[in-house]
Design goal:
The chain is about 25% helix and about 25% strand. The protein is an alpha+beta fold. The protein has two domains: about 5-170, RNA polymerase II/Efflux pump adaptor protein, barrel-sandwich hybrid domain (OB fold (Dihydrolipoamide Acetyltransferase, E2P)); about 220-420, Chloramphenicol Acetyltransferase. The strands form five sheets. Strands 9, 12, 15, 16, 17, 18 and 19 form a seven-stranded mixed sheet that branches. The relative contact order is 0.11.
């Protein structure tokens, strides 16, 4: 029997998207894991992979089509020994498509793989492929999200181990917390209570994802915070000298030094370069530093990968390119998904000290404030110096207080002795 390929959900809150283009054409043979199409989100373009093998018999939604609802049939796949002539009869006789009858939430053996829009570690179970991608029907995914369940911890009873509705109904929460339902007033009720004029701004998909991720982080990750004050007079002098010799090829910022210092500190204290999973603590070899960038639609964190091996000029040029792509909405998934530690710098806004929320599955984020001139004591003498505060937020399941303190000591060493970042 032919199989429908459905418009996948790129996040738990996605309801529609743009089918940017087809990578495969009608008549092409595909195998599980082959990229068949690209879907455009407000963040980037995501690839859609085939779950089953077969031949694409008919494309139902053309490339470039916008506002395609999740679970809408976009193509039909034929398995071995099935004929193209069967497709029209199959579509004519089928009454259970998600687009024509969204109120009927019926389990389909042909439910597609849902692309993960947020990079979180997946447990390899019988419902996952060798790369750890979890297969589940759209209904099962929605039910699991509502119940606060981790799909990778549910054994699937559907075809090829796919998680289906009954699996989620029988599953018990394993340390996850269900999303709380809001009991407060809506926008109109709130404005009426305050008795003032108001405007409403629709919540974008990107903002929904940000809100969901930050709420999940604060509810499920045990945060603690450590602050260190770094003297940055030597850094400012080094930065000035290097920029004067650069002849316009690059211009180092304080944040470039912060990124490099973070990467080197993670190498010095590898226990902080890690993530928590229910099975084990994952330790990373390289320092992939995520850097918070403000965009018109929300915050996103492009990644400077293997920053410990890159020079300060290389980091500076790469970070400027990533920041521009982020603001233009042109980041590719591999440029913002992942990272082993994050940096958030609000010093350019005059903020001297703040605490940031951890970006799971990372275990640390360092919040950097502005440099401030103030009296400092140096060898029993009071002098004017420039200092910068850095606050480390830690996941206590991975990073203990002593480890966090050692990381900040290493970070302070590199910031106060910037020559170490050039060798």
């Amino acid at each position: 029997m032919p199989t429908k390929i459905l418009m996948p959900a790129l996040s738990p809150t996605m309801t529609e998207g743009k089918l940017a283009k087809w990578v495969k054409n009608e008549g092409d043979e595909v195998s599980a894991g082959d990229v068949i199409a690209e879907i455009e989100t407000d963040k980037a373009t995501m690839e859609v992979e085939a779950v089953d093998e077969g031949k694409i018999a008919k494309i139902l939604i053309a490339g470039g089509t916008e506002n395609v609802a999740v679970n809408t049939p976009i193509a039909v796949l034929l398995e071995e020994d099935e004929k193209s002539a069967d497709v029209d009869a199959f579509l004519a006789n089928d009454n259970g498509s998600a687009s024509s009858a969204p109120q009927v939430e019926e389990e389909k053996s042909s439910a597609p793989q849902q692309v993960q829009a947020i990079n979180t570690p997946q447990r390899k179970t019988q419902n996952a492929d060798p790369n750890g991608r979890v297969f589940a029907s759209p209904l099962a995914r929605r039910m699991a999200a509502d119940k606060g369940l981790n799909l990778s911890q549910i054994n699937g009873s559907g075809p090829h181990g796919r998680v289906v509705k009954s699996d989620v109904e029988m599953a018990k929460p394993q340390g996850a917390t269900a999303r709380p339902q809001s009991s407060g007033p809506n926008a109109r009720e709130l404005a009426d209570m305050l008795g003032m004029a108001y405007e409403t701004e629709p919540v974008t998909k990107m903002r929904e994802v940000i809100a969901s991720r930050l709420q999940e982080s604060k509810q499920t990750v045990p945060h603690f915070y450590l602050t260190v004050e770094c003297r940055i007079d030597a850094l400012n002098e080094a930065r000035k000298n290097v920029n004067e010799q650069a002849n316009g090829k690059y211009k180092l910022s304080v944040n470039d030094f912060v990124i490099k210092a973070t990467a080197m500190a993670l190498q010095d204290v590898p226990q902080a370069n890690a993530s928590w999973t229910d099975e084990a603590i994952i330790s990373y070899e390289n320092s992939d530093v995520s850097v918070a960038v403000a965009t018109p639609t929300g915050l996103i964190t492009p990644i400077v990968k293997e920053a410990e091996h890159k020079s300060l000029p290389t980091i500076s040029v790469e970070m400027k390119e990533l920041a521009k792509k982020a603001r233009d909405g042109k980041l590719m998934p591999h440029e913002f998904q992942g990272g082993t530690c994050s940096v958030s710098n609000l010093g350019m806004f005059g903020i001297t000290e703040f605490s940031a929320i951890i970006n799971p599955p990372q275990a640390c984020i360092i919040a950097v404030g502005a440099g401030v001139e103030k009296p400092v004591v140096n060898n029993s003498r009071v002098e004017i110096g420039t200092t910068m505060k850095a606050t480390l937020s830690c996941d206590h399941r991975v990073v203990d207080g002593a480890v966090g303190a050692q990381f900040l000591q290493a970070f302070q060493k590199y910031i106060e002795n910037p020559v170490l970042l050039f060798v």
